[in-house]
């Protein structure tokens, strides 16, 4: 079965975003495919490469990087949600004359068309909010 | 980009207030994007989401888009149907004749049936 | 048939809206703050048990919250079980 995930939860508030990453991992382990993870609204903070977590807390970015690099899962941040939250890749940082990129390269910034495509071409769309 | 029309039906469920968080605008943006790519898309205003349908909204002084005006423009976007949780609308004294966009008011059983008729449910 | 996932405490609007939207044959998975809905012998738990859905709670969130004893009709599930539920139910609706 083809899955896509819609992540609205902030990675630093509640368990929603971490549950989403573990869910994606379990979807693949069950033999399904993940077409795309689309991060929207506060979910876009998931892509930040600049956050620093205390050593006694789990790393919020690592599970997503593993999914992208080891399982080739496509991670897309909604560009309009992302840039208003300071989540910029190198292209956007240069376009908007900001001092640096803040998004990890495992993520791409793109428009809502990627969410539309995910709904049109997935058997399951699973949303994580709150 | 273009998106193939695969015949999947999506329902966007809007449950949060229009000006209290960024979720509401995200939901409307998602619905309008679906419609722009010619996907079958309906909207359901549920619970506090029915507050999107308040008459007389004027958001000029808070510096964000007027949600009432945005909703009034939805017919231009080919959103198939707009549904409203009738019980919540009644609780907030929102009447069918007074909303910025015409919607079908549904009771609890009709809402349950609507959820089961769609392929994807996007809850905002 | 809908898989409802509830990530909100029993005092929330999400809890009330979710319960009203559940139809016979649906399933309800409690995760995050939603796990407090199945603390036994509470009004929220009584309401949940009457809602007509198959009931599940996510193990890691229940353990974190201190929800250790749940009614027999609530199945404690892990991430693999969560995936299986999304495969069994054709659509999911997130409440939070």
Description:
The complex is a heterotrimer of chains A (130), B (124) and C (96). With 130 residues, chain A is an alpha/beta fold. Chain A has helices spanning 16-29, 62-71, 79-83, 90-95, 113-120; strands at residues 2-7, 33-39, 75-78, 107-110, 124-128. Chain A has one domain (2-128): DsrEFH-like (Hypothetical Protein Ychn, Chain: A, 3-Layer(aba) Sandwich), CATH 3.40.1260. The longest helix of chain A has 14 residues, at 16-29. Chain B has a single domain, classed as DsrEFH-like (Hypothetical Protein Ychn, Chain: A, 3-Layer(aba) Sandwich). Chain B has 4 helices and 5 strands. The radius of gyration of chain B is 14 Å and the shape is globular. In chain C, α2 (43-50) links the parallel β2 and β3 (54-58). Chains in contact: A-B, A-C, B-C.
The overall number of domains of chain C is 1
Order of helices and strands of chain C: EHEHEHEHE
User: Which chain pair shows the most residues in contact?
Assistant: A-C, 23 and 24 residues
Q: How many helices of chain C does DSSP assign?
A: 4
Helix content of chain A: 25-40%
User: How does the major sheet of chain A shape up?
Assistant: 5 strands, parallel
Poorly predicted residue ranges of chain A: none
| Sheet/helix structural class of chain C | alpha/beta
CA gyration radius of chain C, whole angstroms: 12 Å
How far apart are the first and last residues' alpha carbons of chain C, in Å?
20 Å
Short account of what is shown:
Chain A is an alpha/beta fold and 130 residues long. Chain A has helices at residues 16-29, 62-71, 79-83, 90-95, 113-120, and strands at 2-7, 33-39, 75-78, 107-110, 124-128.
